Amino acid sequence: MNQALLPLALALAAAFQPVAPVAPVAPVPAEAQARGVEDPGAFVSRMFAAYQRAPDSPPPDPAFSYSDRLRDQFAAYNAAFSGGDLVGSLDFDWWANAQEWRISQVAVTDEPGTGDRKTITARFNNYGRRDVTHFNFVRVGERWYLDDVVNGTGGGGGWMLSALLRVRP
Length: 169
What we know:
The protein has 169 residues and is an alpha+beta fold. The chain is built from 5 helices and 5 strands; from the N terminus they run ααααβββββα. The radius of gyration is 24 Å and the shape is globular.
């Protein structure tokens, strides 16, 4: 009878072998799951924190945060400059306002908004150069969407993202 139970015991032992632990999956931010963001100031702060953690290696494009208008502008810009040797007006990373960065001393402030519009201002250093960028958000329903970005004053030494996206070859 012991010989008859041996295969059963081996089968049961194999079934109850410890399983290697599975690495926990990092939670996906709610903003990555849905379009728009809940808190524009926190979103801008997280983006700059990502730039600080990985100099010269940009985080994934936060297209989920773009308004329909800005998404359409990016789509038209990308279509105009795809598949060729042309370089568009966005030959730099507009979050860092540079091609290379070592972001430090970031201060993000929530400017007083009116109704469904809000501006988040980021002041930061990049290789010691002081920079100021204004992120303009629009609310649609319960979510906020990045609608435009202005560096500096939007003219002279600065730029406006929507204007850069309209430049064509």
